[in-house]
Specification:
Distance between the termini of chain A: 65 Å
Radius of gyration of chain B: 22 Å
Number of helices of chain A: 9
Order of helices and strands of chain B: EEEEEHEHHEHEHEEEEHEEEH
Number of helices of chain B: 7
Structural class of chain B: alpha/beta
Distance between the termini of chain B: 60 Å
Largest sheet of chain B: 9 strands, mixed
CATH topology of the largest domain in chain A: Rossmann fold
Number of domains of chain B: 2
Strand order of the largest sheet of chain B: 11-10-9-12-8-1-6-7-13
Oligomer: heterodimer
Strand order of the largest sheet of chain A: 5-9-4-1-2-3-10
Bound molecules: flavin-adenine dinucleotide, adenosine monophosphate
Number of domains of chain A: 2
Chain lengths: ~325, ~270
C-alpha cells in the first residue's frame, strides 16, 4: 500500500541545500497536515548526509540519502535512475518536486518513468477533505487561466513553481530519521555529458536575489534609453530586469528576462516601466510584494497587479522620480 | 551525412490574445477561442523548425518531418513549418485529441514517431503556450529510451553526437548526447526565418499525411487524459492599485517617490 509523502530535495553545486528543498518540504508538510502522513525527503549527491539535520529542521520526518559518486553532479540520467529506485522502495502516495532549473527536467521524466501523470508548475496545493487526494492549481495559457487538477493514480506527483511556497522556519528541535537510500546506479546510464560550462558573472545586484528590481518593457523604445534606468537602479541598489521583447530585440541579454520563460523573482519592490503586464510576464513576478507600475495606458493590465501606479509618459516621470529618489536615499 | 529530423509542432490559440478577449467556458472546462484571432503554430516550435532547417543545411541534406497532434487544424497555419522549408507534414488527427494532457499526448506522438521510423533527432519546442507544461519532450524521451536535452539555444552535430548550448542564469553550458536524441528548443534560437514566396508555393502543393488514432495502433475511445481537470477559471486579482496623481507627469514622478518613501519601501 502506497503511503506517505516523498519530497525531492536538491543540493547546490557547493553541496548546500538548494532553496527549493525548503519549499517542497513546506508543501509536503501542508499536505501531511491534512492526513497525518509521514514526510520523507530524498537527498542525493556529494555531502548529502551533512544536510540531513537542516532538512529535518525544515520539516522532514525521514531523509533518504545517497552520496554515490555518480550522483555528485546534478546529472539528470544518474539522478533519475536513483530516484526511480528510491520511489520504488519508499512507495509514496504523493511525490513533491520543485520546478527549479534541475527539477524542471527531472520531474517530467521521473513521472513518465513511474508511468504516472504530473501536476506540473503548481502554485497552490491542497488535500481534498472528502477524498483525501491532492488537488493542485496550475496556471495555463500563460497565466490567463488557472486549472485545478487531480491525479487518479498513486503516486500523485506534483511539481511546484519555485518561490511561490515559503519554506517553514527551521525548527532545530524537530526529530527525524536518516536512512541510506537503496541506490545502485551504473555510470553507463549517463548519456548526456557536459562539454563546457561558462560563467558570465553579472555585475551589480543579482536579479534573482534583489530586494528591489527596476524592470523595463518594450515601451522604453530602444537600447539608447537604458542608461537612465540603469542610473535609477544604481541609486536604489536595485537589479535591472526586463520583459521578453526587450531581450528578444537584444536591448538586454536574456538573463535579464522576467516571466514565464524568464526568471521567477520575488522582490520587495518591483518597479516596472512601460511594461503592459501580459500574463506571461506577471507569471515571473506575481510573488513580488509591491508592484509599482508606470505606463501611459490607464487600461494596461499591469495596473491590475500593481499596488502603486502612475499613468504617464516614462520620459517625463522618470527624471523627477530618480531625482527625488536620490534626494531621499541620500538623506 | 544527411540528417533526418522529426519536429513536433502544435497548433495553439494565439498566446498574444489580449487579456480582455480571453474567455473560459467554465462548464465545459475549456478556453473559448477569441473570434477573429486565428490560431498559430506554437512559438517555440517555430524555433525548433528553424533549428532543424539549420541542421539540415549544415548536413547538406536529409529530411524534416513535422508532426502535429490535434483535434482539427487550420491548413494555412499548420503548413507554416512546410513553408519555412520542412519536407513533410504528418497530422495525427482525432476528436479525442482535444484537451489531452501530456501523459496521453506523449503516448500518441510516440506511436506516430515509431511509425515514421527513421530519425536522428526529435525536436520539440520548450513548452506549448496553451498548457505551458514543458513536459512532452521529456515524456517522448522516456518512452523511447532516448537522451533528452531541454531549452536549446543552439545545436550542432559533431562526430555523430548532438551538441546543445543552453542558457543558464549565470552563463551557459554545452551538453552533448549521442543520437538519436530528443531536444527541446527555446526562443533564444533566433532569428526564425519567415516563409518566402517559394516556400509558401511549395507548401501549398504538399498534402499532409493524416493519421487517425487507429493508424498508429491506438484506440480512440480509450484515449483520456492522465490527469483529471476539475476546474478551469480566470483568476481574479484582489489587488487595488493606488494611482498617484499630480499636476503633470513630472509631478507624478516626484510624488511616486515620496509615496514609496512614506510606505517605507525606499
Ligand atoms: C509562451 C510565451 C512565453 C512568454 N514568456 C514571457 C516572459 O517570460 N516574460 C515576458 O516579459 N514576456 C513573455 N512573453 C511575452 C508576453 O506575452 C508579452 O508579449 C510581453 O510581456 C510584452 O512585453 P512588454 O510589456 O514589454 O511590451 P508591450 O506589451 O508592447 O507593452 C509596452 C507597454 O509600454 C507602454 N508604453 C509605451 N510607451 C510608453 C511611454 N512613453 N511611457 C509609458 N508607457 C509606455 C504601453 O502602454 C504598453 O503597455 C511570452 C509569450 C509567450 C507566448
Ligand atoms: N499536440 C502536439 N502536437 C505536436 N507536438 C506537441 C504537441 N503537444 C506538445 N508538443 C511538443 O512538445 C513541446 C512541449 O509541449 P508541452 O509539454 O505541452 O508544453 C511543444 O513545444 C511541441 O514541440
Amino acid at each position: 500500500m502506497a503511503q506517505g509523502i516523498l519530497a525531492i530535495g536538491e543540493l547546490n553545486e557547493d553541496s548546500s541545500l538548494a532553496s527549493v528543498t525548503g519549499e517542497v518540504l513546506a508543501v509536503a508538510r501542508k499536505l501531511a497536515g491534512a492526513t497525518g502522513a509521514q514526510v520523507s525527503l530524498v537527498l542525493l549527491g556529494k555531502n548529502a548526509s551533512q544536510r540531513t539535520k537542516e532538512a529535518i529542521a525544515l520539516g522532514a520526518d525521514k531523509v533518504w540519502v545517497s552520496e554515490a559518486e555518480v550522483l555528485h553532479e546534478n546529472q539528470i540520467e544518474a539522478h533519475l535512475a536513483a530516484l526511480a529506485q528510491v520511489c520504488k522502495a519508499a512507495d509514496p502516495q504523493v511525490i513533491v518536486a520543485g520546478k527549479s532549473l534541475f527539477g524542471r527536467d527531472l520531474a517530467p521524466r521521473l513521472a513518465f518513468r513511474l508511468r504516472v501523470p504530473l501536476m506540473q508548475d503548481c502554485i497552490d496545493v491542497n488535500t481534498d477533505p472528502a477524498t483525501k487526494r491532492v488537488v493542485a492549481v496550475r496556471p495555463v495559457y500563460g497565466g490567463n487561466a488557472n486549472a485545478r487538477v487531480a491525479s487518479p493514480v498513486d503516486p500523485q506527483f506534483v511539481c511546484v513553481r519555485p518561490k511561490i511556497f515559503e519554506a517553514l522556519p527551521p525548527n532545530p528541535s524537530r526529530r527525524g530519521e536518516v536512512v541510506q537510500a537503496p541506490v545502485s546506479v551504473d555510470a553507463s546510464v549517463v548519456k548526456v555529458k557536459r562539454v563546457r560550462r561558462v560563467k558570465e558573472e553579472a555585475t551589480g545586484v543579482k536579479l534573482e536575489d534583489a530586494r528591489v528590481v527596476v524592470s523595463v518593457g518594450r515601451g522604453i523604445g530602444g537600447p539608447e534609453n537604458l542608461p537612465p534606468f540603469q542610473d535609477l537602479a544604481k541609486a536604489l541598489g536595485a537589479a535591472l530586469g526586463a520583459s521578453r521583447p526587450v531581450c528578444d530585440a537584444g536591448w538586454l541579454d536574456h538573463s535579464f528576462q522576467v516571466g514565464l520563460t524568464g526568471k521567477t523573482i520575488a522582490p520587495e519592490i518591483y518597479l516596472t516601466w512601460a511594461i503592459s503586464g501580459a500574463s506571461q510576464h506577471l507569471a515571473g513576478c506575481s510573488a513580488a510584494k509591491n508592484i509599482v507600475a508606470v505606463n501611459r495606458d490607464p487600461n494596461a493590465n499591469i495596473f491590475k497587479e500593481a499596488k502603486y501606479g502612475v499613468v504617464g509618459d516614462w520620459k517625463k516621470v522618470l527624471p523627477s522620480f530618480t531625482a527625488t529618489v536620490k534626494e531621499l536615499v541620500g538623506s | 551525412m544527411p540528417i533526418n529530423i522529426i519536429v513536433c509542432a502544435k497548433q495553439v490559440m494565439d498566446p498574444e490574445t489580449p487579456v480582455s478577449a480571453f474567455k473560459v467556458d467554465r462548464e465545459a472546462k475549456r478556453v473559448v477561442p477569441a473570434t477573429g484571432i486565428p490560431p498559430v503554430v506554437n512559438g517555440f516550435d517555430e524555433n525548433a523548425v528553424e533549428a532543424a532547417l539549420r541542421l539540415k543545411e549544415k548536413a547538406g541534406g536529409g529530411k524534416i518531418t513535422i508532426l502535429s497532434l490535434g483535434k482539427s487544424f487550420v491548413n494555412d497555419v499548420i503548413k507554416k513549418p512546410l513553408a519555412m522549408g520542412g519536407d513533410e507534414l504528418v497530422l495525427l488527427q482525432e476528436d479525442a485529441f482535444e484537451g489531452l494532457d501530456a501523459f496521453t499526448t506523449v503516448q500518441a506522438l510516440v506511436a506516430a514517431i515509431k511509425k515514421i521510423g527513421q530519425y536522428d533527432l526529435i525536436l520539440c519546442g520548450r513548452q506549448a503556450s496553451d498548457y505551458d507544461q514543458a513536459h512532452v519532450p521529456h515524456g517522448i524521451g522516456e518512452m523511447l529510451g532516448l537522451p533528452v536535452i531541454s531549452m536549446a539555444a543552439n545545436l550542432e552535430v559533431k562526430d555523430g553526437a548532438i551538441h546543445v548550448e543552453r542558457k543558464l542564469p549565470d552563463g551557459y553550458e554545452v551538453l552533448e548526447a549521442p543520437m538519436p536524441a530528443v531536444v527541446s528548443v527555446s526562443n533564444e534560437l533566433t532569428p526564425v526565418r519567415l516563409p518566402n514566396l517559394r516556400g509558401i508555393m511549395a507548401a501549398s502543393r504538399k498534402q499532409p499525411t493524416v493519421w487517425k488514432a487507429a493508424d498508429v495502433g491506438l484506440e480512440a475511445s480509450a484515449l483520456r487524459s492522465g490527469l483529471e481537470l476539475l476546474d478551469l477559471f480566470i483568476p481574479v486579482s484582489e489587488k487595488v492599485c493606488e494611482f498617484i496623481d499630480g499636476e503633470n507627469d513630472e509631478d507624478k514622478g516626484r510624488k511616486l517617490a515620496l509615496r514609496l518613501r512614506e510606505a517605507k519601501l525606499i
